[in-house]
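Figure 3 (text version): structure tokens given as input.
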């Protein structure tokens, strides 16, 4: 089972069993879920939401990239802005970024 699905299943069991904390985070409760795992889960949640929104808006296009080249990804700044626009509730609570843009 992929780690995100395992974490999601574990979190779902804890939430229904113990009730959500006041801030909506599972970490406020006694949990065997490590802080590092919770932050990693929330990171992947934000990245997945940004990629989904990029794809829905038709911005995401396949492109060749290389570790050997110093050429920047053309949509990198746009992707950064989509990441900053994500607002969601994760394992650690509400996730929202400060408004900033990449040029």
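Below: residues designed for each position.
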């Amino acid at each position: 089972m992929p780690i995100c699905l395992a974490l999601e299943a574990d979190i779902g069991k804890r939430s229904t069993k113990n009730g959500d904390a006041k801030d909506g985070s599972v970490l406020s409760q006694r949990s065997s879920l490590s802080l590092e795992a919770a932050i990693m889960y929330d990171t992947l949640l934000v990245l997945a939401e940004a990629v989904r929104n990029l794809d829905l808006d038709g911005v995401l296009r396949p492109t060749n990239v290389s570790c050997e080249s110093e050429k920047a990804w053309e949509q990198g700044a746009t992707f950064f802005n989509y990441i900053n626009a994500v607002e969601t509730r994760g394992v650690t609570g509400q996730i929202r970024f400060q408004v900033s843009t990449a040029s």
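Residues 15-20 have pLDDT under 50 and may be disordered.
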